[in-house]
Amino acid sequence: xxxxxxxxxxxxxxxxxxxxxxxxxxxxxxxxxxxxxxxxxxxxxxxxxxxxxxxxxxxxxxxxxxxxxxxxxxxxxxxxxxxxxxxxxxxxxxxxxxxxxxxxxxxxxxxxxxxxxxxxxxxxxxxxxxxxxxxxxxxxxxxxxxxxxxxxxxxxxxxxxxxxxxxxxxxxxxxxxxxxxxxxxxxxxxxxxxxxxxxxxxxxxxxxxxxxxxxxxxxxxxxxxxxxxxxxxxxxxxxxxxxxxxxxxxxxxxxxxxxxxxxxxxxxxxxxxxxxxxxxxxxxxxxxxxxxxxxxxxxxxxxxxxxxxxxxxxxxxxxxxxxxxxxxxxxxxxxxxxxxxxxxxxxxxxxxxxxxxxxxxxxxxxxxxxxxxxxxxxxxxxxxxxxxxxxxxxxxxxxxxxxxxxxxxxxxxxxxxxxxxxxxxxxxxxxxxxxxxxxxxxxxxxxxxxxxxxxxxxxxxxxxxxxxxxxxxxxxxxxxxxxxxxxxxxxxxxxxxxxxxx
Amino acid sequence: xxxxxxxxxxxxxxxxxxxxxxxxxxxxxxxxxxxxxxxxxxxxxxxxxxxxxxxxxxxxxxxxxxxxxxxxxxxxxxxxxxxxxxxxxxxxxxxxxxxxxxxxxxxxxxxxxxxxxxxxxxxxxxxxxxxxxxxxxxxxxxxxxxxxxxxxxxxxxxxxxxxxxxxxxxxxxxxxxxxxxxxxxxxxxxxxxxxxxxxxxxxxxxx
Lengths: 502, 207
Fold this sequence. Notes:
Largest interface: A-B, 30 and 26 residues
Radius of gyration of chain A: 43 Å
Shape of chain B: elongated
Largest sheet of chain A: 5 strands, antiparallel
Helix content of chain B: 55-70%
Number of helices of chain B: 9
Number of helices of chain A: 14
Oligomer: heterodimer
Number of domains of chain A: 3
Distance between the termini of chain B: 55 Å
Number of strands of chain B: 5
CATH superfamily of the largest domain in chain A: Histidine kinase-like ATPase, C-terminal domain
CATH topology of the largest domain in chain B: Rossmann fold
Strand order of the largest sheet of chain A: 2-1-5-4-3
CATH superfamily of the largest domain in chain B: Response regulator
Strand content of chain A: 15-25%
Mean pLDDT of chain A: 85
Distance between the termini of chain A: 88 Å
Radius of gyration of chain B: 23 Å
Order of helices and strands of chain B: EHEHEHEHEHHHHH
Helix content of chain A: 40-55%
Largest sheet of chain B: 5 strands, parallel
Structural class of chain A: alpha+beta
Mean pLDDT of chain B: 87
CATH topology of the largest domain in chain A: Heat Shock Protein 90
Strand content of chain B: 5-15%
Structural class of chain B: alpha/beta
CATH class of the largest domain in chain A: Alpha Beta
Number of strands of chain A: 17
């Protein structure tokens, strides 16, 4: 019997001493009557150092005060201690958070004798909890105060399960309405952009990031431009489970862009008109050639008809020539008008080599008159680019006319211009115009594109500035360099696909 | 008509149209697509005129005019241009062009210009012919006769010539008579006129 009891006691002692929690007993006044050796791990004290003391002796003053009050209340109600969090100071001075649980002990007369319980170190858990709370708070603060709409969507259901309050401001609809009717998001997109935006956003299924823009129509009928980007989030197994993203109101930026483009278009138009004036002589010459042919042919025909036996074959030939000359004249006018037209900035898929050929046709009689020869080196199999054709022609024209003026007409050297096209490395096309003139001061290479920079006596200094603005508006780059054997080379790139995003 | 119209223009349809028109009227026409082409094929003493474009690749019309002027060409030039400005036409006219027509030009204007040019060409050829005749006559003078000739046209009297050349006045008279006969003139005034036509440099009179 005694050994049985002994065995059982030993068993409990083993448990008490091996579990990580600290086991204790206190009397009615809170004085420790039993302390398991684990206290050493939790608070750094030996059990005997703490026996006879109260838990409050192990706490900083203010904490002691608070917990003493709680303990008093628990004692008065004779209730158990349930996960009471309290801060204790270890022997080395460090503070730790303990979670105390205990049950009341009664004597046979139902009088409260004290408590028996465990203390568990929850410092680490508390720290993590605190950090989680903080980061949640941070997230909430960010999500709710930023002007951008922050959203999260489930990949499986394709439903947006979180959208930040900015949604209400930008979309003019409540977040709740979105949760309730996920389709309302698609419906809010401008009909013209809906298909494209949906295709872009549908990439969510593929697990790749997306980046798109679209217009939305708010319930009050106003239109806003949205720039929406989404990124995949993977779980530990590497599966994309959700998408997070930011949708931003870029209406102002789009408007400014549009205005800039408008200005750029106007500037380019003014430049073209002034170039046209420069080319007026050439154009008149160009146009008067077929007119001269037509008149001579017509008058020859008139004469032939007065003859006794008109040569019908010759009359036929004359008419064929007249028609050909007429077509030539009207194509010159069409080209000139297209060039001078003040159209909106329109981008279409164009063939770079053909576009350059047409530009050179406009300027050829002028360059011929100036005794300049043009050599073209067109790269074969060049991909089409998305650009405004007239503006590209304008660039070529500006560069050719500039070069023509840069090369002194009296020089004995034959004036030669080389125009070449090639494929660039980063999905772009490179176009170069180089002359065999004197080149320019290396100091000026950087600034020739600046407004009002000119080396000409009567130059405005706007030609290259406008050229650069056109290149930049297309998402390309332009630069100048002196050629090793004298002469200036100006090159520019144009991307194959237009960068229409902000 | 034996006159030929030489058309120098780089534009094929202009060449074709003009040649048809001029052929119908009855002119001989020769076509050249560049100034170099024309200069390579030209011969001396042609009858007719040139219709010359101003703006051409390579040598332009004005440069070609200059080249022809240097080589005593009898073919007058009518410029034809798609677009002419005043300074350009003034330069061309100063250098002897017959006319400066802006394309497209009417047949009547063209014919009037061609008529004027051909007349000019005829006179030029006569002038060039006369000069050749005078020079041929001058060639048959003996060296003594030539000496006497040069002194006569400066206005010297027989006596002065005799003392200058150290010969008798009678001998001067004989030489003088032969000069008049060989040069086919009857008066001193005519002799002086011929000398001028043939561009004979008159030595400064030194007595």
